[in-house]
Write the structure tokens for this entry.
Amino acid sequence: MPCATGSSVARSAGFLATAVTGDGTVVGGARGALHVGERVLPWERIRSATWDADTATLTVVTEADTVALTFDGGATRLLALVRERITASVVLQRPFPGGRVVARRALTGERTVAWQVEYDADVPSPQAEAAATAALAQARADVGL
């Protein structure tokens, strides 16, 4: 979409902040998800988002893939919203040797908790996998789920 339509798209979609990528894709942050063009990425499914100021690129890592978005400018409000929404979705983080267990909840009022195991290495060791299993069981017991 052309840059000129970004504000009208934001109003009609209920976005809290928007920015337009260099190729014209409207990226909007709503209460429950990050919208990248037609893609909807729920905040609780985003593992991380990093900003590279040198290249003006936001890299969003989800459970399934990685999305790199390069902006020409004007993304400050969107970047602040991305940080706030991802942080707000985290209910609990529990480290273990070799990674962490993270519990996330949708920001739309849904009560379901999504449990994720994040490893420090691309291929976890058997010890890290065993530690993850124990940490996940303990975290669920501590939260009562």
Observations:
- Confidence is low (pLDDT under 50) at residues 1-8.
- The chain is about 30% helix and 40% strand.
- The longest strand covers residues 46-52.
- The radius of gyration is 17 Å.
